[in-house]
Amino acid sequence: MSIETLFSNQDPKIFNARTHADGPNGKLPLTPEFLRSAPSGNIFGMTVNAGMGWNPDTLANGDFMIISTQGGIRRDNGTTTAVGLHNGHFELGLLMSEAADVIKQMGGVPHAAFVTDPCDGRSQGTIGMFDSLPYRNDAAIVMRRLIRSLPTRKAVIGVASCDKGLPAMMMALAGQKNDTTILIPGGATLAPNNGEDLGTVQTIGVRYANNEISFDYATRVGCSACASAGGGCQFFGTAGTSQVISESLGLSLTHSALAPSGEEIWYEIARNSATAALELVVKGIKTKDILTDKAIENAMVLHAAFGGSTNLLLHLPAIAHAAGLKMPQVADWSKVNKEVPRLVSVLPIGPVNYPTVYGFMAGGVPEVMLHLRKLGLLHEDVLTVTGSRLGENLDWWEQSERRHNCRTHLQATTGVSPDEVIFTPKRAKERGIGSTVTFPIGNIAPEGAVVKSTAIDPSVIGEDKIFRHTAKVKTFVSEKDAIKALKEPGRIQSGDIMIVMGGGPKGTGMEETYQLTSALKHLPFGKHVSLITDARFSGVSTGACFGHVGPEALAGGPIGKLRDGDIVEIIVDTVKLEGSLNFIGTENQKLTYEEGAQVLAQRETHENVGADKDLSEDTRLWAALQEVSGGTWRGNVYDVDRIIEVLEAGKKTLMK
Asked: What's the pLDDT at 43?
């Protein structure tokens, strides 16, 4: 094709382009004093708003920012012009429209801005995953820059759904301490009547490679998993957990997390959120009034009670950091998980794998909170975006028509009792449900690691409720090598311990390794294989999978010094929530934990461990900045004061 071909056979009408036209009718609602004293940008903003078709008479009534992670192009008639990167952001524009209509009806001027987000499911096993976690920090910065670019804003309404866009949105709103803010969660994708959920369907490749499913089954089930065009995945992964965290923080309305996408109750949440934002402005309630240390603690409690994604160990500290609050440490998470019972039965860890919309219809966050308040585990005096204290919200919820109708509807339409989705503490204990996460340490992970201990298959846990696994390890220097091994029948066998190194921030941007964990879940021998890595896991991951191992291999961490044939001992007490990961020698030389640590300290890091050749300059910069800021166990944040301190010290050294 040539330029001549591109511009041949042109319709002469295209050259009849106008260079001038009449501007909008009407007048700006200015006053002499406003013209004398207002910044020129405020006046210019009115001018361009009129140019975009807004009624000039209302332009002085107040500006409201609605910012979302919208992606894709959906026409007004519902047809798709261009797909988004995932369902979670594809229909957020509908929620924005509902919120905008309310603001317009109340006389305000809504402004819409967009910072779209990637899909962790789409990028699994690809170099796209190297940008997933780094995106979060950068997106939060861009969102805040856009928010501040509307200096006349009275309030900010965030709209987001999924794994990185929603944490980024919470970080952005948290950073706007003196703004009035509210967040509309994007809800959950409907489950198919016949098919698999979006977590399970990601394993069709490895299951087919191991002759677990037919080709025809793979093609059909791969097509039918999404029963609505919008919403976060149907399982309680990072997207669903982040929605619960937003509501638990008080940033989102009571009973708004995990709503069924596209349904009328989903739209209602957007309308009510806009109404609440307007009322918050009147009351003068700011983000700093809602996001407090107590709110962070409430969110940690709900994370444990729901059995949330371990990715929130990265995101909640980052939200706290953005808000200028105390950042949860490993000891804080451990304490909460020892005190708080898990009460929710949904995908992926059950005990019955109901889709997350069942959790919403069973009562969602406020229903779980009713049980937690009886145990004295909540700060009920915190303020929320309803304008009321949490305790007042729960008093209303307990007697509300909304609660009764949702729970009754779930029972009537599915035959599932809401009390079998959200348990009482007594019922949870009877079902043998354990708390969510354990933080093992040891000579492999001196800074710590994390395992979703409640998701280890019960059949491999001893009668004393302790998981034990001691075996020779098989080491891999990348996720690519590890997944290749899993797809080669016989290469990984029952009883193996897989070590995947080089997956931390410096190696891959701390990639998510759901390819591996999902494969182990759905292969018949998978429950007898343990995985230890310095990478992270998807929120839907299950099994004896240990991530966030610190220090990472490329920072000199002991995990990078293990070799094939080394013997590793894993112990996890699923009741006391204590655990250890230790190198204990080789077949010919048994070592104590201390001796093992000494041997690892004297070894060189595996010669083939390095930053992935496809790691971008952008992610290398992110890795360096977050390492200076405290690394994985401080939320992978940008701590500006620390970064400046290191830069200044470096400049002085270079000058010498």
From this structure: 94
